[in-house]
Design brief:
291 residues, alpha/beta, 8-stranded mixed sheet, two-stranded antiparallel sheet, 35% helix, 19% strand, globular
Length: 291
């Protein structure tokens, strides 16, 4: 698959565009890019036009402007759709991409026909807290992105991995946190890690996830904007029983917040990447849900 490029104004986004039919917009997660969706696109491009952008600061897209919230990445996605002449589409979001999909559906309900969240982040946010001398969480929020960037457990150790393009360390991180059931082929792993290491916006993403709060209940980072209630389309949420990145309780909370609009899909023997652990089942569930 070859990437194309499109100017959405202040940024130029790289993207994959395969197949014909009704459009699906694929939104990748943190530490990934459009290319991570390639096996799923291969299975769905016979039914749908599959379009996957590299989000701002990821992959081969530009990073001309920093951002402070997932709202801004949802806005990028809306502009991206406008530039492609797509008035409305199905949306599939993985992990952080699920959170961006929720914001897109809330901000632009007319643009999202249905949303499928693959191990999507909590609509109440995914916080990083200050650590004590034993490197344990204190439950106290950071006051700024700059302060969060110095977190010695979850943020600061990652920055040299990206800066030095340290593929071995990054591959070990994926093995320890994502690939707990199955692993990609060596060829896939090499390609996907190389895409991961193109990321330049880690601090922005970590902060944006922390301050996300679409509920009406305050979190340590944000008062909550209640925007989960602005979503009008059906939303499916997957949850793997071995996912240690987005625990099932978070996914169930997302589904409960949307009530009758939500469909909860539970996967056994599956961690944070159903794209590797149960790809055929995932593609079948996406197709069934969209149809």
């Amino acid at each position: 698959m070859e990437k194309k490029y499109i100017d959405i104004g202040l940024e130029n986004l790289a993207y994959l565009d395969e197949g014909t039919g009704e459009a699906i917009i694929f939104l990748h997660g943190n530490m990934s890019s459009s290319v991570h969706f390639a096996p799923l696109i291969e299975r769905l491009k016979g039914e749908y036009r599959c379009i996957a952008p590299d989000l701002r600061g990821f992959g081969d897209s530009t990073y001309n402007n920093r951002f402070d919230s997932l709202d801004e990445l949802a806005e990028d996605t809306s502009l991206f759709m406008d530039k492609l002449g797509i008035e409305s589409a199905y949306v599939v979001g993985w992990s952080t991409g699920g959170g961006i999909g929720l914001k897109l559906a809330a901000m632009y309900p007319e643009k999202v026909k249905k949303l499928f969240c693959i191990e999507g982040t909590s609509h109440r946010g995914y916080p990083i807290f200050k650590k004590d001398v034993a490197f344990q969480s204190t439950g106290e929020p950071y006051a700024s992105k700059e302060e969060m960037a110095m977190d010695m457990v979850q943020v600061a150790p990652m920055l040299p991995v990206f800066a030095n393009k340290d593929a071995l360390t990054m591959a070990n991180i994926w093995k320890a946190s994502i690939y707990l059931v199955n692993e990609p082929t060596p060829e896939e792993s090499t390609l996907w890690i190389s895409e991961t290491l193109k990321q330049r916006n880690l601090i922005d993403v970590d902060w944006s996830l922390a301050v996300l709060n679409m509920s009406d209940v305050p979190s340590p980072y944000a008062p909550g904007d209640g925007s989960i209630k602005d979503i009008k389309c059906p939303v499916a949420f997957t949850s793997g029983d071995k996912d240690i990145v987005v625990p099932r309780a978070m996914v169930e909370d997302n589904a409960n917040a949307l009530g009758d609009l939500a469909t909860l899909i539970l996967y056994e023997n599956c961690a944070h990447s159903p794209l590797v652990d149960c790809l055929d089942l995932l593609s079948s569930d996406i197709s069934s849900f969209l149809n």
